[in-house]
Design goal:
Helices cover about 35% and strands about 30% of the residues. With about 375 residues, the protein is α+β, with helices and mostly antiparallel strands. The strands form 2 sheets. Strands 1, 2, 3, 4, 5, 6, 9, 15 and 16 form a 9-stranded mixed sheet that branches. Strand 11 and strand 12 form a beta hairpin.
Amino acid sequence: MSVDRMTKLVARAVGLSPQQLLDSFIPGAAEHLAGVLELRNTLFGASIHWDDKAYMTWRYRFGSTCAGRGDCWVLVLKGRLAGMVGTEEVELERGAERIPAWSTMDIAIDPQFEGSGLGSWMNMRLCQAAGCALTIGSNEKSLNMITRTFRRLPNRRSFVMPIRFQRILSKRLGGPALANLIAPFVEGLARLWRWVAFLGATGALELKPLQSFDGDTTDLLQRSVDLSEWTLSRNIEFLNWRLFANPRVRYAVTGAFEGGVLMGYMATMQRGDRDHPSSTVLIDWSIDQTRFRPVFRALCADAVRAAVNQGVGAIEVTAYHPRSEALLHRMGFLPRYKAYDTIAVYSIDDSRLQRLLGSGPWFVTAANTDFDDL
């Protein structure tokens, strides 16, 4: 369905003219923030354990010229905030090609307008305004809408390395009694596997925690680019904003140095209860292409060691990068299907769309999403 046709249908459903509907969907300004926070609290209040005002003003501009990396678009109907969609301004790149785009996220609709088509219309309207758009991840409510509006690529892939096996075995064996007997044996085998898989992983590399990204990272980012891959452009301003300034979650970032030169980094977070995390998640990495295998392996080994010492039950990662995925398999990470690990693109330029949908590989990490520790 065309945007014009859908605009007429949705406008009729909410009692407005098409032009009134278009004029009601605007980039959020400071005066809209309270309504956005109220809508999010109504829909997600039980799961919001962070300062949502700090999070929203970190991610979106709301009229600011120095905060956020995109606009939170709001739909105001008869003085009431009826819906919102967040955007992040990104640049898709492969080789010499650069494509400005918007990544859409944080969609929310007032329950009063459920079934009106507002969600699909807002997404379609933003895609048209952007010219090129990307959306990463979905849920039960948004999956069909994304499939209708965007063109889906193959899903991202999730992996897990279990460390503790009581819960897994309890589910498989129908109770804890037998699981408690078998778990120590299985965990012993898993420890042996990890020892073999990561034997000598660090080598001559020096691993150090990073507190911010600087000029060394700019040089690394240039060396980490594979000209055959589609990726979202990165720079130190983005990385410092995304991994060190995020008010919703704290990341641990480790750098791998060889002869004093930064050869790669990896960012991780803990998921679950703050005092007793259930898993460690590998969030983001960038590796010198000439040393990808040993550096990625060393950083994974370091993350696994830290996770074991912290007593978590598993290490998780969602990857969209064939080279990383192949190494995760070899290190003993097990694939895990998730229906909502989607990635989809949109472009008003059909030739550009076909290039994005082509067979070339992508490099996307969880740092390009808004899920954090949700």
